[in-house]
Amino acid sequence: MRYLLSILLSIFCLAFIQCSEDNPTDPPSQSKGTLVVKSNPSGARIYLMGTDTGKNTPDSLTNLDAGTYDLFLYLQYFDTAFFSAKIVESLTTTKEITLQDGLPFVEIELNYLGTSDSVKFSWLLNQDVLMDSIIVQRPIDNSPLYVIDKYFYDKELFVWKDQFGNPITYYLPPPDLGPKYYPKVEGFTYEFNFYGQKAHGTMTSFHLFISQDI
User: Fold this and answer.
1) Half-sphere exposure of 93 (CA within 13 A, CB side)
2) Taking the CB of residue 153, how many other CB atoms lie within 10 A of it?
3) Considering the entire predicted model, what is its pTM?
4) Domains, the chain, with CATH or none
5) What is the dihedral of CA 65, 70, 73, 79, to 10 degrees?
6) Tens of pLDDT along 88-107?
7) How are strands ordered across the β-sheet holding 129-139?
8) Angstrom distance (rounded) from CA 214 to CA 194
9) 131: β partners
């Protein structure tokens, strides 16, 4: 009888051990990967699989399962940058993205307003700029002589719209710098050179030459 009980107890223990192996209570640990995202310029918002991560470049996304992820970076005044990253367990993947300027080339629309003996010019921008200088070459009379007016601004901000979204009109000559009109000389060309840089995005420098026949 004692021998039979020993056999039954052994069978019960073996069955319990087998059940424990088939249904483990502690799942095996899995290694995760890390993604480091950098951008030029920095400060771009990082979106992972369409979801805002709340992080800006440069930063790291940790505890990622192995696989391929779709991401994009958003930074105001730049084109949204879409890319993919392959994550490997226990490894760090680094992505460096160069953002492209989302702003167009600087453009200026020039018009003139005149009376019988005087003329002034109005101009509109297509974006905010930091103006360095405006050089005007204009006739002084019906002779072939020209005078050059130079206006220096030292990267002064010229915004293209007001707070209500309306385009802002600027004038030459600048009304706060002396005469409000140039002498009007018909049959001659007035030439304008605008120098500055974009106020946003890549802040690229520009030089625009515009001529106007009167």
Assistant:
1) 20
2) 16
3) 0.79
4) 33-98 (2.60.40.1120), 108-213 (2.60.40)
5) 170
6) 999 999 999 999 999 999 99
7) 146-158, 129-139, 189-198, 205-213
8) 20
9) 156, 196
